[in-house]
Specification:
Pfam families: CN_hydrolase (PF00795). The chain is α/β, with parallel strands linked by helices and 268 residues long. The chain contains five helices and 14 strands. The protein has helices spanning 56-72, 93-96, 103-115, 198-206, 222-238; strands at 30-37, 42-49, 75-79, 118-120, 124-128, 131-139, 145-150, 156-159, 163-166, 179-181, 186-189, 211-215, 241-245, 262-265.
């Protein structure tokens, strides 16, 4: 559904009108569409906040359906959430891991080409040379794999009485940055916990990115404390726009995502 519209410039002039951040929690599948007006043209960015189940084929079908819905409503860039094809958890990563290309990324390539869009494939557990990664694959309007980004900063946290999680038990960190160009702007990629590290956003801004996209699955402890705060910080510090795509909240899941897929920015 169309939930929020906000105008963003292509290359931010000295004093553009600030956009209105958009983000509301929903327990249901949804697609957030945010209209981006730039100097010479316009594009619509869709953040897909979908319910993730334990059945991979259902997740792929649901994701592709929402991507098509976004495209029919004018989206030119679409982002899925972190671990869109798999429950989020260290015990699930080995079970759901795939090669790239593989089943999930093949589906994404096909639907990107079918819809003629730039598709940021959230993330999936990737297996490569005996190691597992939390990986985002991006596809162009012709279905070509443009870039692949592996989560740099693994989510290892211990908040006594609230949450303990250690991605590094099963995952390996990435070792490189990933950007890609569109007719609308240059985009930099991060995944979830990468949002906590200001240097990554600074490097992307220095490399000419106007939009940073972080598929992420903050939880019910870190979400209310840091989700919006960190997005606004990265945006203000670097004078860029920041978009975050989360899975939908499922109170019955072993890991409950915060939701609140959002886009914001404060170039001034």
């Amino acid at each position: 559904m169309v939930r929020g519209l906000v105008n963003l410039p292509h290359v931010a002039p000295p004093h553009p009108p600030p956009p209105t951040p958009s983000g509301e929690c929903s327990l249901l599948d949804k697609t957030d569409f945010l209209h981006l007006d730039i100097e010479l043209s316009a594009f619509r960015l869709a953040l897909i906040q979908l319910q993730v189940s334990s059945i991979k084929s259902d997740n792929l079908t649901r994701a592709c359906g929402l991507i098509r819905e976004a495209a029919t409503q004018g989206a030119k860039i679409v982002s899925l959430p972190e671990c869109f094809n798999s429950p989020y958890g260290t015990k699930y990563f080995p079970e759901y891991a795939e090669k790239i290309p593989g089943e999930s990324t093949q589906k994404l390539s096909e639907v990107a080409k079918e819809c003629g869009i730039y598709l940021i494939g959230g993330s999936i557990p990737e297996e490569d040379a005996g190691k597992l990664y939390n990986t985002c694959a991006v596809f162009g309007p012709d279905g070509t794999l443009l870039v692949k980004y592996r989560k740099l900063h693994l989510f290892d946290i211990d908040v006594p009485g609230k949450i303990t999680f250690q991605e590094s038990k099963t995952l390996s960190p990435g070792d490189s940055f990933s950007t890609f160009d569109t007719p609308y702007c240059r985009v930099g990629l991060g995944i979830c916990y990468d949002l906590r590290f200001a240097e990554l956003a600074q490097i992307y801004a220095q490399r000419g990115c106007q939009l940073l996209v972080y598929p992420g699955a903050f939880n019910m402890t870190t979400g209310p404390a840091h989700w919006e705060l960190l997005q606004r910080g990265r945006a203000v510090d670097n004078q860029v726009y920041v978009a975050t795509a989360s899975p939908a909240r499922d109170d019955q899941a072993s890991y409950v995502a915060w939701g609140h897929s959002t886009i914001g920015g404060c170039p001034c």
